Amino acid sequence: xxxxxxxxxxxxxxxxxxxxxxxxxxxxxxxxxxxxxxxxxxxxxxxxxxxxxxxxxxxxxxxxxxxxxxxxxxxxxxxxxxxxxxxxxxxxxxxxxxxxxxxxxxxx
Amino acid sequence: xxxxxxxxxxxxxxxxxxxxxxxxxxxxxxxxxxxxxxxxxxxxxxxxxxxxxxxxxxxxxxxxxxxxxxxxxxxxxxxxxxxxxxxxxxxxxxxxxxxxxxxxxxxx
DNA sequence: TTCTTAATTAGCCTTGACTCTAATTAGACT
DNA sequence: AGTCTAATTAGAGTCAAGGCTAATTAAGAA
Lengths: 108, 108
What we know:
The structure is a homodimer of 108-residue chains.
Chain A: H1 3-10, H2 13-23, E1 27-28, H3 29-34, H4 40-52, E2 56-61, E3 64-69, H5 71-85
Antiparallel strand pairs in A: 1-3, 2-3
Helix pairs in contact in A: 1-4
The structure holds a DNA duplex (30 and 30 nucleotides).
């Protein structure tokens, strides 16, 4: 899971809305595309952004692609964000959790 | 709390690192700036992005500005992200939590 | 094969993000 | 006042994101 890709993917209202919809269950690309006032190619790039972050997966059934949420990556992202934003109680856990701790790049 | 601003603010490694550092306690702008290989004006824009999202607050003490994390907004953001990415058990809670549920914009 | 539907790719344009150097404000000290 | 340090603003350049129309691929149906 690449947090950068996930945050980039989440940083658009349409893409967040797609995530929210897919939480209720899978949906087809065309079906989702109808819900927003953008062209289908634009929707295609939104799907690509979400796929690149591995937040959604698509399965082709004939001519239709059905997207579903990738719960694993969603939870990994939550964990990473919790690690970043979650409160620390008393700054006790320096090397707290799953992801990389702060890695500064000091002067060379 | 504007999720868009928060996600925009988090979508940069330096800014995420600043958040991580401020979790350990307040830090001065100049002190933080030294930790990265970018110019001070660039750091200033990063601080601005974080301030615009209200993730950090700065207090001027003479000529020095000390930044500290805004834990309230951080937790609100976590809550909103949990609402978005957190698992739903069985898609039972349609109108689940604090933030706005899906608001589609159907064809006019 | 030809037609229709679903989705993506290609090409283009506009806007916003990120970075820099140079100049400017703001405060403290001599 | 003059000067030093801390931080921001101004201006400019590069690059990625987001959007469109038009063209292309892929699959199924006539």
